[in-house]
Design a protein that fits this description.
Blueprint lengths: L2 H8 L32 E16 L6 E2 L5 E2 L2 E14 L2 E12 L8 E3 L2 E2 L11 E12 H4 L10 E15 L6 E15 L3 E16 L22 E2 L4 E11 L10 E10 L24 E12 H6 L7 E11 L27 E11 L1
Antiparallel strand pairs: 1-4, 1-17, 2-3, 4-5, 5-8, 6-7, 8-9, 9-10, 10-11, 11-12, 11-13, 13-14, 14-15, 15-16, 16-17
């Protein structure tokens, strides 16, 4: 088994709390595997992991409260439970993750429309919202598809076709439910100390997104298709995306300290149309705000291989402890400087601090 894919599997959890990030890697058959195809199992690598992490300052656009001193609190703690699967076969890789995000009371579940407030204006202490988010990425390596090494040169490890899907659902009052697909290429490069960096230019299409905020009858009566949607479902325009992820052991450390590695990811997603999915007409009481380029990133994660430190190389990455920094600008494509009533207070223009997520968080990952 090549170290490259061992490392990929060991660090796949950097995307388990991604929301719209992505992981996909080019195929790389081990050299010894070439002697007899019949000797190979269908999956050359299968790696499954579970993870728990705690995010002290998560956000959910539009969910905020006012502190006693008049300042806005737009953050909420989130517990994150994740399962990830990675496999390698003869022509590429597959990566799947599904995560559950359990928010604190500042991001309430239905029937609250805001912390402590129901749709009727009554007081209620609603439980924190629960979001389920799933992500899938597959690659098909050109070296493997065309039986060549022509796409390996210098630091370039391989070029691959990449496809994938994302989807989520959340039990808050607006009941968001996003579905999107991605397709494009991935360029895989080698880094020092057995590391890698993958760069994937993609087409991104959010073909379905339910949000009660856009639904007729909630804030405005109609006409449907102009100032509101009859069922709250929106199909956005296809746009561009770039997804990057990397991993590297800290191999420059002394041998008795080589239990540490760094990894990270970033995803840029272009403007996808009006944030409401509507043309909006002036004078009918409905505003229109263009979506903005979205950056969803975890630029750095520091991982300690606790099982290797305790039991040796044989158990490397069976138990990982990690700390990371998460930064998400223009969350879900919403303009953090605009979008009245969501990213800003409609009456004053003051930021709700809910459309930018910036938090340090940590967790534990177990391989099974």
């Amino acid at each position: 088994m090549s170290f490259r894919f061992t490392a990929i599997a060991a660090t796949a959890l950097s995307l388990a709390t991604l929301a719209t990030g992505g992981l996909a890697h080019a195929a790389d058959l081990p050299v010894k595997a070439a002697k007899k195809t019949t000797d190979l199992p269908f999956f050359l690598v299968i790696d499954d992991r579970v993870s728990f992490s705690y995010m002290p300052k998560g956000t959910d656009p539009g969910m905020w409260s006012v502190n006693p001193n008049g300042t806005i609190n737009g953050t909420t703690p989130k517990q994150v439970y994740s399962f990830t699967h990675f496999d390698l076969w003869a022509y590429g890789t597959n990566f799947f993750t599904i995560s559950m995000f359990k928010s604190g009371h500042n991001d309430p579940a239905s029937p609250c429309v805001a912390p402590g407030v129901t749709i009727t204006g009554g007081a209620a202490d609603c439980a924190g919202a629960t979001e389920i988010y799933g992500l899938f990425r597959s690659t098909f390596g050109w070296n493997e598809l065309f039986n060549t090494k022509a796409f390996t040169a210098g630091p370039l490890h391989n070029i691959s076709f990449e496809v994938g899907m994302d989807g989520n659902t959340e039990n808050n009052f607006l009941a968001p439910a996003k579905r999107d697909v991605v397709a494009g290429l991935q360029f895989a490069f080698d880094l020092p100390y057995k590391g890698y960096v993958n760069v994937a230019p993609l087409m991104y299409w959010e073909f379905s997104n339910h949000n009660a905020f856009t639904q007729c009858g909630l804030f405005v009566a109609g006409p449907a298709g102009v100032v509101c949607n009859s069922d709250g479902n929106v199909s956005y325009n296809p746009t561009w995306a770039v997804e990057i992820n990397y991993y590297m052991d800290l191999g420059f450390l002394p041998p008795n300290m080589q239990y540490w590695s760094i990894s990270g990811r970033a995803g840029w997603y272009g403007p996808k149309g009006d944030s409401n999915g509507l043309p909006a007409l002036s004078g009918v009481g409905r505003f229109s705000t263009a979506s903005k380029t979205e950056l969803n990133s975890e630029p750095i994660r520091l991982t300690f291989d606790a099982s290797k430190a305790a039991w040796g190389d044989k158990y490397s990455h069976f138990v990982d402890l990690w700390v990371a920094y998460r930064y998400w600008q223009n969350k879900f494509g919403l303009d953090h400087n605009a979008m009245p009533g969501v990213c800003t207070v409609a009456a004053t223009g003051q930021s709700t601090k809910t459309c930018t997520e910036s938090t340090v968080y940590g967790g534990v990952t177990l391989k099974f």
